[in-house]
Design brief:
- It holds the Pfam family Jagunal.
- InterPro entries: Jagunal (IPR009787).
- Belongs to the jagunal family.
- The structure is a single chain.
- By secondary structure, this protein is mostly helical.
- The chain has a domain at about 65-180.
- Helix content is about 70%, strand content about 0%.
- The protein has helices spanning about 25-60, 75-80, 80-90, 95-130, 145-180, and strands spanning about 140, 140-145.
- Helix 1 (about 25-60) packs antiparallel against helix 3, helix 1 (about 25-60) packs antiparallel against helix 5 and helix 3 (about 80-90) runs antiparallel to helix 4.
- The protein is elongated.
């Protein structure tokens, strides 16, 4: 073989190495899935910060209660949802399967479960708003139950996609591990 800048071996144009330059598909998928999960984690952190801000403003009485309502009960356990996202981020540098599995399990416990509870907790107030047009809690002039249902829907989608991509990433990592064991 020729080296860079030197003469080429006779009978070759130097492109005979390209078949060895391809990256295995599970490694490509791992990089892509990590990128998607990071985007979802950043979206989750944004939602988390908005809820934290609402809780701080409500409890510290920085604004009147007619502008920012006190938080619903489901918002308190949802604050723990930052932990699964951190575990997910910690699993990326070394493809740590155990951290990713813990992240997926705790996402269900600390993220999805409070969202389900929140949807059930706010349902009577949403029903009252729909039937009678009466809202008693507001966030900057909007019905608090409407705003928080919007947050629940967006957060549920973020966590759903996060779990889906995490499962695909876990499968990709298992494929890589199985190929290493075969060698």
């Amino acid at each position: 073989m020729a080296f860079r800048g030197g003469p080429r071996a006779s009978g070759t144009d130097g492109s005979d190495f390209q078949h060895r330059e391809r990256v295995a598909s599970h490694y490509q998928m791992s990089v892509t899935l990590k990128s998607e999960i990071k985007k979802l984690i950043y979206m989750h952190v944004g939602i988390w910060l908005l809820l934290l801000a609402q809780m701080c403003v409500g409890h510290l009485k920085l604004l009147p209660h007619d502008q920012v309502a006190m938080p619903y009960q489901w918002e308190y356990p949802y604050l723990l949802s930052i932990l699964p996202s951190l575990l997910g981020l910690f699993s990326f540098p070394r493809n740590n399967i155990s951290y990713l599995v813990l992240s997926m399990i705790s996402t269900g416990l600390f993220s999805v479960a409070p969202l389900i509870y929140g949807a059930m907790e706010m349902f009577p107030m949403a029903q009252q708003l729909y039937r009678h047009g009466k809202a008693y809690r507001f966030i900057f002039g909007f019905s608090a139950v409407s705003v928080m249902y919007l947050v629940v829907v967006v957060a549920a989608q973020v966590h759903g996609w996060q779990l889906y991509y995490s499962k695909k990433l876990l499968d990709s990592w298992f494929t890589s591990t199985q190929e290493k064991k075969k060698k």
